Every structure is written in C-alpha cells, then in structure tokens.
Amino acid sequence: LWSKKETGEKDWEELEELLIQADMGPALSLEIVEEFREFKKSRGGDDWQEWLYQKLFSLLEGNDPSLFASAKEGELKAIILSGVNGVGKTTAAGKLAYLFRNKGEKVSLIAADTFRAAAMEQLEVWAQRAKCRYFRGTEGADPGAVVFDGISSARHQGDTLVIIDTAGRSHVNKNLLAELEKVVRVTKKLILPSNLESILVIDALAGQNAFLQAQSLFPVADLSGIILTKWDSQAKGGIVFRIGKEFHLPVKYLGVGEGIEDLVPFDAEEFVKTIVY
Amino acid sequence: ALTDKFNAIFKKLRSKGKLSEEDVDAILKELRMVLLESDVHYRVAKDLTSRVRERAVGKEVMESVTPGEMVIKILWEEIRQILGGEARELNLSGSFPASVMMVGLQGSGKTTTCGKLGVYLKERGFFPLLVSTDTRRPAAKEQLRILAQTAKLEFFDDPQASTPQEMIKKARDYAREKSLDVILVDTAGRLHVEEELLEELKELIEEEEFSERFLVLDATTGQEAVKVAQSFESWVHPTGLILTKVDTDARGGAVLSIVAQTGWPVKLVGVGEKLNQIEVFHPDRMASRIMG
Ligand SMILES: Nc1nc2c(ncn2[C@@H]2O[C@H](COP(=O)(O)OP(=O)(O)OP(=O)(O)O)[C@@H](O)[C@H]2O)c(=O)[nH]1
Ligand SMILES: Nc1nc2c(ncn2[C@@H]2O[C@H](COP(=O)(O)OP(=O)(O)OP(=O)(O)O)[C@@H](O)[C@H]2O)c(=O)[nH]1
Ligand SMILES: [Mg+2]
Ligand SMILES: [Mg+2]
Cα(B160)–Cα(B138) distance, rounded to whole angstroms? Predict the structure, then answer.
C-alpha cells in the first residue's frame, strides 16, 4: 500500500476498502482506519500489514475456540445449532457428529427441525454418514418436545453427546424466536450449563445482517459460540470481528466445504492472515 | 433510521443558513456509511455518492430550504434508476415446453423458489413440471418432491438418469406426453469459485435451451455479491435475478451492487418460506429499504 512517508487520503481509502470488502462493516472499518492514522502519525512505521494483523488478531484475543472446555466428565453434553435459513446448520450437525465420534464420543443427532420439507430426511442421511444415532419426532411436532424426548433417549442409551439441529428462522419472527428459546430452555433442564454449547451458525458470504442475527439470537439462545460456514467461498467473514467485539462470541469451527470432513477448528492466525495478506 | 440521522445533521446545518461544500461532503459521508451498512458493494457505494454529490452541489440543493430532504431524494432517485430498468415479465417463449433454470450459491433458496414459481405459474394458467438435477445434497430431490406434492404440482424424477442433461431430456419427453408447458429445473447449489461445478452448468445450458436462467440470491449476501455475479455471468449468463429472504430485515444492498454491475432484471422476490410467498419486484420499496 504505502512506501512513501507522506500518505494521503487515497491510501487510507485502500485500507478502508480492504476492511469493508472483508465484510467488517463501515463503523468498525472506519474505527480501524482512524486508529491506523494515529499510529502512523505517532510511530510512522511502514508495515501496515503487520500493524493490521496485530490489530485484527487482538480483536479475537481471549476467545476460546474449543468446545466443552469446562464440561463435567461423565455427564451428557449437548450442542444446539441455531441460525437463519440456509446457512448450513444441518450440514454442520453432520460434520460435528462425525468429528466427535472420531474423538470417541457416543453421539446422537436430534432432528428438531420438524417444519421444513425433507429436513429430517436430510439429517438422517448425515447420521448414516457419521455412523451415529438419529432421533426424530413426527412431522410438525413441537421442537421442544422432540428435544426433551431425544435427550432422554440419548441418556438412556448411554450417549455422551447430543447434537441438536434446529429449523432455520428469521430473527424478525417473534414466534420462531420463542420456539428457539423453548428448545434452549428444555435442553437446560436436562443438561448441565458446563456441558452445553449453544452455537450460532453464520454464512461467511453474509453481510452486516449477520450482526443483527447474532444480536437477536444471543439472548434468546444464550449463545456460546459461532460456526462460520462456506469459508471455502473465499468470502472473508469479517463480520465475526464485529460480533466478537460486541458479544465476545468466539468462532469454534469453519465450514470449508460440503463433505463430512469439511469442518476445521478455528485458527485465529490463519483467519487473520487470509484477510490481511 | 436514515431520516432521523439526517434530520439531526440538517438541524445543525440549517442554523448556519446556506450549505457549503464541506456540509455536503459531511452528509455524503453519512450516506455512504448507510449504504455500506446495507451491504452495498464498496465501489458501487462510492459511485453512487459521487453521483449524488454532482447533483447536490448544484443550485437545487444548495439554495433549497430543506437541503437534507433534497439529498435523500436524490440518492433515492439514483438507486431507483439503477433498480428500475428492465421490464419484469417472465420469458417463457422459445422451444415448447419452456424451460426455466434456478442456479445460485448453496442455501440461497433455489429449491423453495422452484416450488414457489410452480405455484405462481399454475395460478396464471400454466401447467408446470418440477424437476431436480441436484444429486449432491442429501434429500434434495425429496425436498422438491414434497414441495410439489404440497402444492399439487407435477414432479418428474428418473433415478436411472445419469447426467443432468439426461434428466432434463426425459423431463421434456414427460412434459410433452402430459401436455405440460413449463419445466422448472432445480440445480445443486455451487460457489462462484467452484469451477468444476460451474463448468457442469455451462455444459448443461449449451445442450439445453433455457428461456430463463435465474440467479437465486439471498438478500443477506454481503460484499462478495459482485464477485458472485461476475462468475455466474461468465459461466451461465443469467437472464434475471430472484432475490430471496426479503421478509427478513436484510437490507439487500447486494441486489443494487449486482444490478448496477450486470443490468440483470430482478424478476421476483421471495418473502417467506411458504410456497405462496413470492412477489413481483418493487424497485421503489427496495430503494427505500436499502436506505434504511
Ligand atoms: N461450500 C460449502 N457449502 C456448505 C457449507 N456448509 C453447508 N453448505 C451447503 O449449504 C447448503 C445449505 O446447508 P444446510 O445444512 O441445509 O443449511 P441449513 O442451515 O440447515 O438450512 P435450513 O435448515 O433450511 O435453514 C447445502 O447445500 C450445504 O451443502 C460449507 O462449509 N461450504
Ligand atoms: N425467510 C425466508 N426463507 C426462505 C425463503 N426462500 C427460501 N427460504 C428458506 O431458506 C432455506 C434454504 O432454502 P432451499 O430452497 O433449501 O435453498 P437451496 O438454494 O435449494 O439450497 P441448496 O440446494 O442447498 O443450495 C430453507 O430453510 C427455506 O425454507 C424466503 O424467501 N424467505
Ligand atoms: Mg437445516
Ligand atoms: Mg436446493
């Protein structure tokens, strides 16, 4: 970007453009550009990329990318996946089931999307691929009831982890928010707080609306983390910085494809490098 | 909302009397922030605000008694002009039965839109046939089959068909046999960077004639929208856009970026998960929505 000492308006624009196009959002991008201008004035270093790398990395600092860091041994664990329509929840459920089964967990997949056409069939295929137990209710059944029965059944069968797939929902739909809130409430009755992860699934191609999604679902689903899908699209997913700054929600995994193994643990260094370099 | 933000700025400015160029720049800075927050692409937002600036430093705004409202009106007009271009009729001419193809990124709403379009056309006296060439996503065909069944639409599947070309040929034969006049083809989702999958679509449209090739686009799409459009344009040459999930609070700036770039007409919008939740595109409403 800059190799001369005096930098003009045009150079700040290039930094701003990089940040905006990474979907960091106008407010956060402006904030970062202003901070860099201050830095340049006072320190004048030439390596903007190194500065930006450190800045973005610091925004993710303190975020724990692991799941179940403080889970109680010998007690059933649960992952609830929520998010808006089409982001990749059902696929992520299948990938997580496979991943945890390979870690030695006994996994149950619970189909709490009782609404969308072929949603339960879709999850069932993933359960077969992941070779784990699959629990569903009847078409149109109350998701809260399905979760209750599914967790009870998993406990009875000696499972160690349940993964709950929910229906896509728009956070502007009050009824659907209430439905999700109930699913989380039912789960909390049966699972220890230390053994529960409530994960927001976000599409890396989404823009600033993903922030509104996090904002609405954070209190409703008592979110503990994020899975960012479709990162193989080469979209930067910068919205997680904005969400992280506001809600301190850590990214746990990145979805990098449509196959069962296409889920990688979040690596802050790699993630930031992809944006900066 | 935008109007409240600007009223605050203009209240301050009005007390100064006439607007200076600096004042206009301050306003435009705010405008650009609003557009970016609506997911309008960086370059498109820049072009738009510089166009507004050209008009805003003219007499009409500078000497207006309500400069703020004038600037907002100018921006709205500029957006409306980009979005409002082409007529929005569905093109079902050409070979009989007409074929309409749904393409787009994973999860954008193609399968659901296929069902919605079936209902939309049936209500207008057509006899649609729904067919899926998606052999990748688990239960994809089942999903379309269930939607067709729910809406009492004809659905075709041949489990023996080994390529999308073959599936469509067989669907055409079936349509002719049953006197069905429009075939709605659902395809698997694919990224704008998945060249093998885009190649597959390119080969399909080289062999089969489609009177409409719709890019089905999620209204929440961010800055990547322009790259998505460029890629699908070079591989598939879409004839139009269907914007989905407009019932959410996604402002949909991606549609402005794409239309500014490609000139594609926005033919329909999805406004919910049910099969009757599809509407004609209203450029006026979309312009207001993008402006927050
Ligand atoms: N390229 C890519 N595609 C993905 C990824 N994750 C999911 N998908 C695809 O995205 C589409 C939607 O995935 P689903 O799992 O059905 O999404 P969902 O959130 O469960 O959707 P709803 O239940 O309808 O709200 C499918 O075609 C998936 O294969 C990913 O990481 N990369
Ligand atoms: N709120 C809302 N949801 C929609 C709309 N259109 C589709 N959906 C939902 O979005 C999700 C994805 O829709 P699909 O039709 O499966 O998307 P797709 O493009 O076929 O997905 P792939 O085949 O995996 O690429 C589903 O949960 C749909 O119900 C819409 O206009 N509004
Ligand atoms: Mg799902
Ligand atoms: Mg589909």
Answer: 17
Here the contacts of B151-154 (C-beta below 8 Å, separation 24 or greater) are B151/B115, B151/B118, B151/B119, B151/B122, B151/B275, B153/B115, B153/B118, B153/B119, B153/B122, B153/B128, B153/B129, B154/B127, B154/B128, B154/B129, B154/B130, B154/B178, B154/B180
Q: Show which residues on chain A lie within 8 Å of chain B, measured between beta carbons.
A: 17, 20-23, 25-27, 30, 84-88, 116-118, 121-122, 124-126, 170-172, 203, 205-210, 212, 230, 232-235, 239, 258
Q: How far is B212 from chain A (nearest CA, A)?
A: 24
Asked if residues A20 and A273 have their Cβ atoms less than 8 Å apart, the reply is: no
pLDDT in tens, B191-230: 999 999 999 999 999 999 999 999 999 999 999 999 999 9
**Residue A134: φ, ψ to 5°:** -130, 130
Question: Beta strands A263-265 and A251-255: pairing type?
Answer: antiparallel
Residue B153 beta carbon below 6 angstroms from any ligand 2 atom? no
Pair of tokens at residue B226: 């322009």
Contacts of B109 in chain A (CB under 8 A): 85-86
* Best of B25, B28, B31, B36 to mutate (most A CBs within 10 Å, chain A): B36
Distance in angstroms (rounded) separating the CA atoms of residues B270 and B243: 6
Which letter does DSSP use for residue A195 in this model?
G
From A121, which residue of chain B is nearest by alpha-carbon distance? B139
> For residue B259, what are its two tokens?
């239309």
Coil, strand, or helix at residue B155?
strand
Interatomic CA distance for residues B175 and B179, integer angstroms: 6
Could you tell me if B118 and B128 are in contact, meaning their C-beta atoms sit under 8 angstroms apart? yes
Give the span between the Cα atoms of A209 and A206, in whole angstroms: 7
Please give the average per-residue pLDDT across B157-171, as a whole number. Answer: 95
Residue with tokens 């999860």: B107
**pLDDT tens-digit readout, B170-196:** 999 999 999 999 999 999 999 999 999
Are A84 and B247 an interchain contact pair (Cβ–Cβ within 8 Å)? Answer: no
Provide, rounded to the nearest whole percent, the portion of chain B with pLDDT above 70.
91
Cross-chain residue pair B107–A88, CB shorter than 8 Å: yes
Distance from CA of B116 to the nearest CA of A (A): 13
Residue B262: alpha-carbon gap to chain centroid: 11
* Cross-chain residue pair B250–A209, CB shorter than 8 Å: yes
